[in-house]
Design goal:
It is a single chain. With about 200 residues, the protein is of the alpha+beta class. It is built from two helices and ten strands; from the N terminus they run ααββββββββββ. The chain has one domain: minor pseudopilin epsh domain (minor pseudopilin epsh fold, 3-Layer(bab) Sandwich). It is about 25% helix and about 35% strand. Strands 1, 2, 3, 4, 6 and 7 form a six-stranded antiparallel beta sheet that branches. Strands 5-8-9-10 form a four-stranded antiparallel beta sheet, covered by helices on one side. It is elongated and about 75 Å long.
Length: about 200
Amino acid sequence: MLRRAHFSLVELLVVMAIMAILMAVVVPAFKSFGGGVSGASRMVGSQLRLARQYAIAHRKRIAVLMPGLNQGPAENRYVAFRACQVDNQSPPNFIAWITGTKWEFLPTGSVIAEADQDSGMQSPPNDGTSTLVTGVDGFSAGVSCRAVVFKPTGATAGGAQRFVTVANGFVSNGSLTIKNAQDYVDIKVDQYTGRVSYEKNL
């Protein structure tokens, strides 16, 4: 007659200790990797879609702010985004944050390198012709912030296609460094419909 194998308490504790050590090593490595450029671009693309839907549903102009060089607090530059209501001036002025929103941050290793009207990424990154929102709450006086602005129809303001380029890089003291200039995703926002699509460069 066969006997069932049983594990002693000591053996179980040893296995649990090994698993805890492995988790302590592996989990931070995944966090620092940050999910890559593709995951970060999906985060930004989702926010753009939500902003467009909000603009249509509430018949207001909605901007997705994405601070760049010397725009807003240093910890937000190139890595954060947030939706707000703006007026119909040129350039648009900040009115109020969308209720229930907060600054969202990209995973470590990803940056919003550009937000302008041309596809691809310049070297070094350059926003070219960006839509700038003025008077943003929490920013210094006179400091504008790059953005994609949606009209109540869902189309973009500014009369041109908009491209948000998410790339592999990091920010130190508000200054942008691109780690791999070939690893980026362009998020295209159609000027007539405001629909979002992705153009991956790999």
